[in-house]
């Protein structure tokens, strides 16, 4: 029975990939699953509170100064999307892997046997319970550029010395048999120590040999690994590009609009690798240019000129329009943060205008604001009338109108155990803190909740990010029909 269950598990992981070749394009489509789809829902306000807290912690961590000791990684389940693939080749060696998909990280890593997760009690893992066993035969050399990238560009000579390669071998660059030293990463509420390995990564008919990844035997507070989709030598797209530039130089995802609805949140969201025929035939995408961040080169940063609330245009502070030489500024487009984080000056201006319009009709729900970490919130005794919210990007003078459900969430609120509940609504943008404290990192983050209902495309060849309104569940269905 165990053997049959194992075969079925492997078969399921293999079949979830859709390989869509054509004469003019190559596309690989993978399903993204929201990490709370397998969780039990408690009260809505408690879910919102934990999610808003994680968004704030991740945003403040992204501005840490010492990247050689810290990297942006997802926090605990509830705000992130997962994807799955198969490690190894052949039925005997293949092992299913489930990871968080994260555009704010540039490394692929996951737990390996033997594995110890410290302070992980009560933290569910979306992937298989048995970590893969990686042999030393697949270890990356200390001389490898990948080893240097994992250690934040530390020289190969220093790394080989750490690996105890003899001096004469270091001088003659003859340390290929010495493994890359373990590296340490810390993040919002945990950390890990990992070794660098190469192995075969399989996706349906696509096989990536010598794929480089981090193998963590010990983590603190993080039982699940990460598929880093950020900019960087070790990221998933960068490694895929060495196999197929058509696949690796362009990817997009379309997050199903769920509003924390259990039925909607269980629908797969398509992750599309490569250029899809007809994906932008009619100029549907609104593009904005990517900005280079010298301190955080793995981020997808864009410039924000302002936010419109109704017909009023609110200019963004200068820190959001560009990234300076110290790595300060810009807006990170981030799949691993739930709610958009704004500097206090812009957030307060948006709230003031929003409240001026909504507060005339609906009473503020201050108690709900404290319980959810969001605001402003209102009691909705009548149909809510809220103004439109538009993001105005600095690059290409482009604008994106957010669907109402992407910035205003309505739900029934009542204290735990209460028999009666009252309808409320909250604005889903968050205060990222005082502008003066935002040096050394991003000025804002565009979270995945605000990206719902859009196909968000990362065009690495043309260095731009694009947005197009989509019905993402229908897009997933149509891509499935194309493969049949």
From TrEMBL:
Residues 81-468 form the Peptidase A1 domain. This is Probable aspartyl protease At4g16563. One of its GO terms (molecular function) is aspartic-type endopeptidase activity. Keywords: Aspartyl protease, Glycoprotein, Hydrolase, Protease, Signal. SUPFAM superfamilies: Acid proteases. Residues 1-25 form the signal peptide. InterPro entries: Aspartic_peptidase_AS (IPR001969), Pepsin-like_plant (IPR034161), PEPTIDASE_A1 (IPR033121), Peptidase_aspartic_dom_sf (IPR021109), Plant_Aspart_Prot_A1 (IPR051708), TAXi_C (IPR032799), TAXi_N (IPR032861). One of its GO terms (cellular component) is extracellular region. The gene is LOC107488223. PROSITE patterns: ASP_PROTEASE (PS00141), PEPTIDASE_A1 (PS51767). The lineage of its organism: Eukaryota, Viridiplantae, Streptophyta, Embryophyta, Tracheophyta. The keyword Glycoprotein applies. The keyword Cell membrane does not apply.
């Amino acid at each position: 029975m165990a053997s049959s269950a194992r075969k079925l598990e492997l078969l399921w992981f293999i079949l979830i990939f859709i390989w869509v070749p054509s004469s003019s394009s190559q596309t690989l489509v993978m399903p993204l699953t929201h990490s709370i789809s397998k969780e039990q829902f408690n009260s809505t306000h408690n879910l919102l509170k934990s999610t808003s807290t994680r968004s704030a912690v991740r945003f403040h961590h992204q501005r840490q100064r010492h990247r050689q000791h810290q990297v942006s990684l997802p926090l605990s389940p509830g705000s992130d999307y997962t994807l799955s693939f198969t490690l190894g080749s052949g039925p005997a060696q293949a092992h299913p892997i489930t990871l968080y998909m994260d555009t704010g990280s540039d490394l692929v890593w996951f737990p390996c046997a033997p594995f110890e997760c410290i302070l992980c009690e009560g933290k569910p893992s979306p992937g298989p319970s048995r970590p893969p066993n990686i042999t030393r035969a697949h270890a990356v050399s200390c001389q490898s550029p990948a080893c240097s990238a994992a250690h934040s560009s530390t020289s190969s000579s220093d790394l080989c010395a750490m690996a105890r390669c003899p001096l004469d071998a270091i001088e003659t660059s003859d340390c290929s048999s010495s493994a890359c030293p373990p590296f340490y990463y810390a993040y919002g509420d945990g950390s890990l120590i990992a070794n660098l390995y190469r192995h075969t990564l399989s996706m349906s008919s696509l096989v990536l040999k010598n794929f480089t990844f981090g193998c963590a035997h010990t983590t603190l507070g993080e039982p699940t690994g990460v598929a880093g989709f950020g900019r960087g030598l070790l990221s998933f797209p960068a490694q895929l590009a060495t196999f197929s530039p058509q696949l690796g130089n362009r990817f997009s995802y379309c997050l199903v609009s769920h509003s924390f609805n259990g039925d909607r949140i269980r629908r797969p969201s398509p992750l599309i690798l490569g250029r899809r025929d007809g994906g932008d035939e009619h100029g549907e995408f609104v593009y904005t240019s990517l900005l280079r961040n010298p301190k955080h080169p793995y981020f997808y940063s864009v410039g924000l000129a302002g936010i419109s609330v109704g017909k009023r245009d609110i200019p963004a502070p200068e820190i959001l329009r560009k990234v300076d030489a110290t790595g300060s500024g810009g807006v990170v487009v981030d799949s691993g943060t739930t709610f958009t984080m704004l500097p206090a000056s812009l957030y307060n201006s948006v709230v003031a205008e929003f409240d001026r319009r909504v507060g005339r009709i609906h009473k503020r729900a201050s108690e709900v604001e404290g319980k959810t970490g969001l605001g402003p919130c209102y009691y909705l005794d009548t149909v809510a009338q809220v103004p439109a919210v538009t993001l105005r990007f600095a690059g290409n003078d482009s604008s994106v109108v957010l669907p109402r459900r992407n910035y205003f969430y309505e739900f029934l609120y009542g204290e735990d155990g209460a028999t009666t509940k009252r309808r409320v609504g909250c604005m889903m943008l968050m205060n990222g803190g005082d502008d003066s404290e935002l040096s050394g990192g991003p000025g804002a983050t565009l979270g995945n909740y605000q990206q719902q209902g859009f196909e968000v495309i990362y065009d690495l060849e043309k260095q731009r990010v694009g947005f197009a309104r989509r019905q993402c569940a229908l897009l997933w269905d149509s891509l499935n029909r194309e493969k049949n």
